[in-house]
Amino acid sequence: MKDISTVRSVVVVGAGLGGLTAALALLRQGFQVTVLEQAPMLAEVGAGVQLSANATRVLSLLGLNESVSELGAEPTGKMIRHWSTGRTWEVPDLAANSREKYGHPFSFFHRADLHTALMRGVQALAPSAIRLDCCCESVDLTGTRPVVVLRSGERVEADLVVGADGVHSCVRAPIAGPDKARFSGLYAWRGVIPAGRLPEHLRTMVGVNWVGPGRHVVQYPLRRGELINFVGIVEGQGWQVESWTQQGTLADCLKDFEGWHEDVQTMIRAIEVHYKWAFMARGPLQNWSTGAVTLLGDAAHPTLPFLAQGAAMAMEDGFVLARALAAHRDDIAQALASYEAARVQRTSAIVRGSNDNTARFHNPKLADVDGAAQYIEEQWAADKVRDRYEWLFDYRVDEVAV
Ligand SMILES: Cc1cc2nc3c(=O)[nH]c(=O)nc-3n(C[C@H](O)[C@H](O)[C@H](O)COP(=O)(O)OP(=O)(O)OC[C@H]3O[C@@H](n4cnc5c(N)ncnc54)[C@H](O)[C@@H]3O)c2cc1C
Question: How many Å apart are CA 348 and CA 240, to the nearest integer?
Fold first, then answer.
């Protein structure tokens, strides 16, 4: 009989940024990999994602250095702007000289570009590894090996199942039990703007955070500045659907930012499609595995995006998981224990740090411009910025002990 503690084949449920990173890292370590994705077509949403050096390092280690350089937009600085007056402060930035400091860039990507680069990387090593239209309904743990049960009735067996199936993970159920998400009281407007629709001063290669009481806006360039990404976070009860594809209306988006500076209104009017995403809160899990089933990314630790680390964490998880499995090929329990030991503390700290940033970005002091100036001095001094971000950016997936 087969030794069930040995891992040769891995099924990854979910072909998001975390699942594809894991698949590529596992293939490069010599595992047989199947990725089961519920979507009938592989296409990421039209939105941006910021990746700091800890995540671009992962891409580089996976042989995607060229994609990072070609597809990413590297910022030249960071600005904070006041919600109603538009007053601008240039603040210390760890992104602008990221290559020199951390050996890897801080880059803004169109999600579709990043997704395609990872997908091509997987397909180059295993052309039929990614299976589409395969919605996982449950994981059967009754046999010697875990079995993914698809909606079609098909059963897919492997030595290890990895749940990379995002915030609504079905693989999470046997590990976390029936933990219900609760609405965090925050939702986001997201949209991509062709840069040509904006005046020149809004088309810069700088990341901008607009701060105000109860809301903030993040603006940054994509595709060498051809597009501008807009994310507007709102405190309020108006929306409780957590989905990349749900749309709102221009009128509702404008209403949420009524009284905000004309530049914010201009960007909102220029957005092609106004997507709306409600943030649901779930506590970070302390235990990510049961038997030969484990989790990564949002399935294990969904987070508010206020440190811009959700995708970065999912990618780090995937890489470290592959290393842990390669280091303990014949002892799956040890591999998963090493994986969790390397990852749980860091990802939990990021979930907590992201929550703390809500109060920082939506501070009531920001209502008037003098309060805002004082806030910038207190919160965005060089040492404070270093304390908040250095430990995130300087993490090395290839050096962490497994
Ligand atoms: C507005 C916003 C802005 C953000 N900005 C940033 C940022 O700048 N930087 C950053 O690092 N992070 C950011 N994040 C967080 C980041 O998007 C997520 O943390 C990241 O996408 C998680 O990746 P994942 O692979 O774990 O999950 P997902 O990206 O959600 O992928 C899950 C995949 O699993 C598939 N799937 C789901 N259920 C099933 C099933 N039952 N069967 C088969 N397949 C299934 C889905 O179709 C999907 O392809 C942001 C999030 C939001 C909402």
Answer: 24
